[in-house]
């Protein structure tokens, strides 16, 4: 009895996928991977909201930046690897499920990291995810002679840095931030070093789709956060929150529009692909932070927060400004010219002034609607001839 070729094997050599493979789409495993990361993103945003509402602004910003880095970097590494080497055999699936388990461990440690500064559980979850990635890269080194050197560099680099993360748990609290920055930089350097003599065959259109899907995930988390906050207020008998909810929804809708306004594609050349891929940390973190900031604004409206209205306004305005400036650098300057290119940083600056007025959330919503309207009205005029091929690399 012969076995059909369509039957998924338990193990197959990890050969590279074609970089020009047509119709390359996200797989059910990749979508499941993203879905499980929603938990970690929601935990980070919720903890940020609580810290800001209590007035612990410095602690909130530092903790959120570190926690979100762990979430984002684990997602990024799996995404780019899967784009190049997804074999969909049983061993690959099991290894990826181990990575997902690490994400759940990481999510469980987020509240403790914010409240007690204890990053042990987050570190354990992160290391589980990253060591499972070492298994992936080791298989790629064995199955892909063309990119064996790069795959080995990945496997060795990731392993060494994970030893550093585990050793960091032994350091006194005073060295926590400095050691985090050094290890985060080491993690970020691994792809730059590994891909230096020849890029692994990741698929630009597939990467673009995957980043778009994760953008939708953090946007969805922001919508959920607003909905839950409004529901809590209504349950407490406070029915004057509808206009604030509407303004918050408009802000999230505008962020979606501005990100997906033009067809985009990850740059194909290494320096630009790293800038594009790494820069999305700010986009993802900013969107989730906008959701947390809107919930803080609801708390201030309900008089249950321990901060001023100006501070609550900046909890929304600051991540909006970060989002606009990052989208401007990564997308707008590559695809537009003229008024729209100037408008993004101008609106970002105006967003930072909005909390000084009486109704910052409404002003921010109006500013974003104005920017969306401008991009729509000037779309045909402000798209230059050099961008006819979406995502063309900068000269």
From TrEMBL:
<feature type="transmembrane region" description="Helical">
    <location>
        <begin position="94"/>
        <end position="114"/>
    </location>
</feature>
<feature type="transmembrane region" description="Helical">
    <location>
        <begin position="120"/>
        <end position="142"/>
    </location>
</feature>
<dbReference type="InterPro" id="IPR010640">
    <property type="entry name" value="Low_temperature_requirement_A"/>
</dbReference>
<feature type="transmembrane region" description="Helical">
    <location>
        <begin position="214"/>
        <end position="234"/>
    </location>
</feature>
<feature type="transmembrane region" description="Helical">
    <location>
        <begin position="337"/>
        <end position="355"/>
    </location>
</feature>
<feature type="transmembrane region" description="Helical">
    <location>
        <begin position="361"/>
        <end position="378"/>
    </location>
</feature>
<keyword id="KW-0812">Transmembrane</keyword>
<keyword id="KW-1133">Transmembrane helix</keyword>
<feature type="transmembrane region" description="Helical">
    <location>
        <begin position="240"/>
        <end position="260"/>
    </location>
</feature>
<feature type="transmembrane region" description="Helical">
    <location>
        <begin position="304"/>
        <end position="330"/>
    </location>
</feature>
<dbReference type="Pfam" id="PF06772">
    <property type="entry name" value="LtrA"/>
</dbReference>
<feature type="transmembrane region" description="Helical">
    <location>
        <begin position="154"/>
        <end position="171"/>
    </location>
</feature>
<feature type="transmembrane region" description="Helical">
    <location>
        <begin position="177"/>
        <end position="194"/>
    </location>
</feature>
<feature type="transmembrane region" description="Helical">
    <location>
        <begin position="281"/>
        <end position="298"/>
    </location>
</feature>
<protein>
    <submittedName>
        <fullName>Low temperature requirement protein LtrA</fullName>
    </submittedName>
</protein>
<feature type="transmembrane region" description="Helical">
    <location>
        <begin position="60"/>
        <end position="82"/>
    </location>
</feature>
<keyword id="KW-0472">Membrane</keyword>
């Amino acid at each position: 009895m012969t076995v059909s070729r369509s039957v998924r094997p338990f193990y197959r050599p990890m050969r590279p996928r074609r970089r020009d493979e047509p119709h390359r789409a996200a797989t059910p495993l990749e979508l499941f991977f993203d879905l499980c990361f929603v938990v970690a993103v929601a935990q980070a945003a919720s903890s940020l909201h609580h810290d800001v509402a209590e007035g612990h602004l410095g602690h909130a910003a530092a903790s959120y930046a570190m926690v979100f880095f762990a979430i984002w970097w684990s997602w990024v590494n799996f995404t780019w690897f899967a784009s190049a080497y997804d074999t969909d055999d049983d061993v690959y699936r099991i290894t990826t499920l181990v990575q997902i388990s690490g994400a759940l461990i990481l999510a469980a440690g987020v509240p403790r990291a914010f409240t007690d500064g204890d990053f042990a559980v987050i570190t354990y979850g992160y290391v589980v995810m990253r060591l499972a990635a070492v298994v992936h890269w080791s298989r790629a080194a064995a199955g892909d002679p063309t990119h064996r050197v790069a795959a080995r560099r990945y496997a060795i680099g990731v392993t060494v840095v994970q030893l550093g993360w585990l050793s960091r748990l032994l350091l006194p609290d005073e060295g926590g931030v400095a050691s985090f920055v050094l290890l985060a930089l080491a993690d970020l350097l691994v792809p730059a070093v590994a891909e230096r003599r020849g890029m692994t065959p990741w698929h630009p259109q597939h990467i673009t789709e995957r980043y778009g899907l994760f953008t939708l995930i953090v946007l969805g988390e922001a919508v959920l956060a607003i909905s839950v906050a409004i529901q809590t207020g209504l349950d407490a008998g406070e029915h004057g929150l509808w206009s604030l909810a509407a303004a918050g929804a408009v802000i999230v809708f505008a962020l979606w529009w501005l990100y997906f306004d033009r067809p985009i594609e990850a740059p194909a050349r290494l320096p630009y692909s790293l800038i594009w891929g790494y820069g999305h940390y700010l986009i993802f973190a900013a969107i989730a932070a906008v959701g947390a900031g809107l919930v803080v604004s609801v708390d201030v409206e309900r008089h249950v927060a321990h901060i001023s209205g100006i501070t609550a306004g900046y909890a929304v305005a600051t991540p909006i400004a970060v989002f606009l400036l990052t989208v401007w650098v990564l997308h707008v300057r590559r695809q537009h010219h003229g008024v729209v290119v100037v408008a993004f940083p101008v609106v970002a600056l105006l967003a930072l002034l909005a909390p000084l007025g009486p109704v910052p959330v409404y002003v921010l919503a109006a500013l974003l609607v104005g920017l969306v309207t401008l991009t729509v009205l000037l779309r045909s005029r402000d798209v230059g001839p050099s961008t006819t091929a979406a995502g063309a690399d900068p000269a």
